[in-house]
Amino acid sequence: MLTAYPTASLDAHPPYLYPDYRSTVKRAPARPLVVIPHTLSELTGPVYGHESLGEHDGDLTRQHTGEPLGERIIVTGRVVDEDGRPVPDTLVEMWQANAAGRYVHVVDQHPAPLDPNFTGAGRAVTDAQGRYRFTTIKPGAYPWKNHANAWRPAHIHFSLFGPSFLSRLVTQMYFPGDPLLALDPMWMSIPDERARLRMMSTFDIETTEPEWALGYRFDIVLRGRDATPTEDPHDD
Ligand SMILES: [Fe+2]
């Protein structure tokens, strides 16, 4: 178990204040942060067991009586810690818009159809090698009101705790070749391009299943120099 988490390991993450991403202006701290020493409660737990997973939590195409519309995809990868070691038995939660770019959420009222066969939320627990796997539908792009004619690139939100509260990560996974990325202030707010690309999945023919689904790989690094950058859980 890690007993220290150097703050330098947070370098991959976006700044609190990035004016092009408008809600950061309201929430960015105006005063210097207060450093609080780590205690045992940050370094232990939370612990999730396999029993907390439902049968179809990892397959978002089978959570209803019918099949959702859209392009079926498999998303899989490894969760590793800042030293590259696999993080086994850790809960990976994800949520996303449907193929039309609409969330099942009261705040999302943009004029795209909901899909009665798609909720858009999944959970998985990593295996001994740190691997997780989801079957889902490729999410659509959707408009948001950050600036004129603003559209979010297709993305899947991920939330992980890893071995302790200090390794908690909320991030987004993107798809290769999306023309909206260069216009997206959330994507562009990550200062280091190499760090940015760690939020990009890669198409993977080995994961792709014939006559069934395209495969994408998305490895997740909790903290450290090569950490997957974080994104705020409350935003689009
Ligand atoms: Fe989103």
Describe this structure in words.
It contains four helices and eleven strands; from the N terminus they run ααββββββββααβββ. The strands form three sheets. Strands 1, 4, 9, 10 and 11 form a five-stranded mixed β-sheet that branches. Strands 3-2-7-8 form a four-stranded antiparallel β-sheet, with no helix packed on it. The longest helix has 5 residues. It has 236 residues and is mostly beta strands. The radius of gyration is 18 Å and the shape is globular. The chain binds fe (ii) ion (FE2). Fe (ii) ion binds next to strand 7.
Which structural class matches the secondary elements? mainly beta
Q: Could you tell me the radius of gyration in angstroms?
A: 18 Å
| Arithmetic mean of pLDDT | 89
- Count helical runs: 4
The percentage helix is under 10%
- Secondary structure tally: strands: 11
Order of helices and strands: HHEEEEEEEEHHEEE
Strand proportion, as a percent range, falls in: 15-25%
Low-pLDDT stretches: none
Features:
mainly beta, 8% helix, binds fe (ii) ion, 236 residues, four-stranded antiparallel beta sheet
Entry summary:
With 236 residues, the chain is mainly beta. The chain contains four helices and eleven strands.
Summarize the topology.
Layout: H1 23-27, H2 40-43, E1 72-80, E2 91-96, E3 121-125, E4 131-137, E5 142-144, E6 150-152, E7 155-160, E8 169-174, H3 185-188, H4 193-197, E9 202-203, E10 214-217, E11 220-221
Parallel strand pairs: 1-10, 1-11
Antiparallel strand pairs: 1-4, 2-3, 2-7, 5-6, 7-8, 9-10
The protein binds fe (ii) ion.
The site of fe (ii) ion (FE2) has 4 residues, from strand 7.
